[in-house]
Each structure stands twice: as C-alpha cells, then as structure tokens.
Amino acid sequence: MSKEAENIDWSRALSPLFRKYGKRKHPLDYKNLYQLVVMVILSSRSTDVFVNKIAPALFKSFPSMKKMAKARPEDLFPFVHGITNFRHKSEWIVSIAREVGDDEHIPADMEGLTKLPGIGRKSANVIIGESGGKPEGVIVDLHVARVAPRLGITRSDKPDKIEENIMKRISPKYWHQAGMGMTFLGREVCRPKNPKCPECPVRNVCEYNAKLK
Ligand code: SF4
C-alpha cells in the first residue's frame, strides 16, 4: 500500500460507492433466510442468474429447512443438476437442514455459519449482511478481489488478506456495503478488461486510475 493510500479515510472515500449501490438488492432473488442460505451455497462457482432460474421449482418442492431435512441429497438432483458441483452442494444443503432443523434455528453469526458444511467466510458474510446481522467481515468474491487491489485499499490478491485489509481500513458499519458495493462495481464498471474508469464513482481515490493519467 502506498503512503497516499495509507492516509486515505476509506470509509469516506468509498461513500460514493455506498450511495450508488447501498440500496441495491442482492442479485440472488431469495424470499427468506432459508432460501438465502440454500441459494448462496448453490451460487458458489455458478451464476446468480442460473440459481435464480432453478430456485423456484426447488423451493416449491422443499419450502423450508424442515422439509429439506427430510430429503435425500439425490432428491435435489433433478432441480440442481446444471449447477457446478451439484452433488456435493445437495449433500451440504441436506446436512445443514438436518443439523439446523428449522428456519428459526439458522445460525446468525460467523462462528455458527462457518461450522455448517459448504459455508465459508464469504458465504457467511453474505448471509449475515443480507439478514441484517452485525457484520463480522467483508464479502470478498472474484469482483472484490479485483476491485480492491485496483483501488489501492490492499496490495494482496489473497481473499483472507484482502478481507483483513478492508476490515482494518473501513469502519465496521460499512463492511457489508463495502463488500456489496465493490461486487456491483466489479460486475458493472470495473470489469477485468477495460474498466470504465471515466464513469466510476470512486475514480478520484483509485490508484489504478491515477496511474492511467
Ligand atoms: S477507477 Fe477504474 S480501476 Fe478504479 S475502481 Fe473505478 S473502474 Fe476500477
């Protein structure tokens, strides 16, 4: 991290991002916490669009954790067979349902969520943030892992280190907004090739953009 980037008040610097994307709905079209947990697991290395497409039929047959707990993993296959790693994901979802029992007992914190199969820090951060819980970290997906080093808020390309750097440099009350904001920015503006810097709301603090000048 450069001296300049170190001296930046990142909570303030990224406020245009929070304003632009802060109220934007998560791309996964979930209706409740149970659906969110299942869809977050299914979306790993698959697209949100595809998960949104297959989810209604899945939830029609398995509308709650309680119903899901009675299923066998192979009962899910006809609904999820186009999803990457669908066999393991089906096993994880059914295991979680059996362990949790019903929707009311879905864990609400990092420790509880990451003990469940198929849920790592990234997924837990999404679930905690979207359910309005107290943030315990920052979502670092492929987009955040690209945008954050370009901005200069981290020098690392390792998700754990990127998350640690962002958590150190942004106030906890913005952690969820920061992760989601960088995700949306990465999807729409800060693309891998030819980022659209002239229309980026945080171009004034971005190291990558400064080097272009
Ligand atoms: S200014 Fe360009 S490189 Fe920097 S975050 Fe915005 S789009 Fe990405």
- Tally of discrete structural domains: 2
Mean pLDDT: 95
N-to-C CA distance:
19 Å
Bound molecules: iron/sulfur cluster
* Overall CATH class of the largest domain: Mainly Alpha
Could you tell me the CATH topology label of the largest domain: Endonuclease Iii, domain 2
Radius of gyration: 18 Å
Our estimate of the beta-strand percent is under 5%
String of helices and strands? HHHHHHHHHHHHHH
Q: How many H/I helices?
A: 14
Using the alpha-carbon principal axes, give the shape: elongated
Total number of strands: 0
Structural class: mainly alpha
Short description:
This protein has 213 residues and is mostly helical. The chain folds into two domains: 3-24 and 137-212, Endonuclease Iii, domain 2; 33-130, Hypothetical protein, domain 2 (Endonuclease III, domain 1, Orthogonal Bundle). It contains 14 helices and no strands.
Question: Could you characterize the architecture of this molecule?
Answer:
58% of the residues lie in helices and 0% in strands. The protein has helices at residues 3-6, 10-13, 15-21, 33-43, 48-61, 65-69, 73-80, 86-100, 110-114, 121-130, 142-151, 159-169, 175-188, 207-212. Helix 11 crosses helix 13 (175-188). The protein is built from 14 helices and no strands. The protein has two domains: 3-24 and 137-212, Helix-hairpin-Helix base-excision DNA repair enzymes (C-terminal) (Endonuclease Iii, domain 2), CATH 1.10.1670; 33-130, Endonuclease III, domain 1, CATH 1.10.340.30. With 213 residues, the protein is an all-alpha fold. It binds iron/sulfur cluster. Iron/sulfur cluster binds at residues 147, 150-151, 189-190, 195-197, 200, 202-203, 206, 208-209. Iron/sulfur cluster binds next to helix 11 and helix 14.
